[in-house]
Amino acid sequence: MSALAPVRRATRLGLVVAATLAFLPPLVTRLLIGQAFFLTGRGKLANVDRTVAFFTDLGIPMPELNAAFVSRLEYYGGMLLIVGLGTRIIAALLGSTMVVALLTADKESFLEAFFMRGDSGLTDVVPVVYGLFLLWLVVYGPGKLSLDTLLARFVREPGAAARATS
């Protein structure tokens, strides 16, 4: 028996455990980010006038239309992320709202963190963190425990839908 055998065995075990738990990161990311956007969207929908005024103060064009769009995108998009339906599209759309937030509402804190002028780092700027999680979902997808994966299985296997209902 080689002196490296225990290391190889531990490495194989580690890889098996990692592969078994690979469904967790995208699931937890979708649940957390989905809930965050659902709650902010719900808040914006409950306070439409305040949201329109905020967008107006930020100089966002067509504040009424954008407030209505962003509120609903966050509210329904958050729900869709939670269940993993349309994940890549919704994450890309929500990511674009994070870019707008960095260019408007959070511009000053972003620039301070980016150029290390204050005590805050980039991870202290919420749109940066949310944007990175959303980018990760766009690139790597919703994971195995999602409606996207379930629907993809039915699309790839023509008889899968009939078998699932019988």
What is this structure's SSE topology?
Layout lengths: L4 H16 L3 H23 L1 H11 L4 H21 L3 H17 L3 H8 L11 H15 L6 H10 L3 H6 L1
Task: Explain what this protein looks like in three dimensions.
- This protein has 166 residues and is an all-alpha fold.
- The chain has one domain (24-158).
- Helix content is 77%, strand content 0%.
- The protein is built from 9 helices and no strands.
- The protein has helices spanning 5-20, 24-46, 48-58, 63-83, 87-103, 107-114, 126-140, 147-156, 160-165.
- Helix 2 (24-46) packs antiparallel against helix 4 (63-83), helix 2 crosses helix 7 and helix 4 packs across helix 5 (87-103).
- The longest helix is centred in the first third of the chain and has 23 residues, at 24-46.
- The radius of gyration is 21 Å and the shape is flat.
- The termini are far apart.
- The relative contact order is 0.13.
- The model has no long low-confidence stretch (mean pLDDT 93).
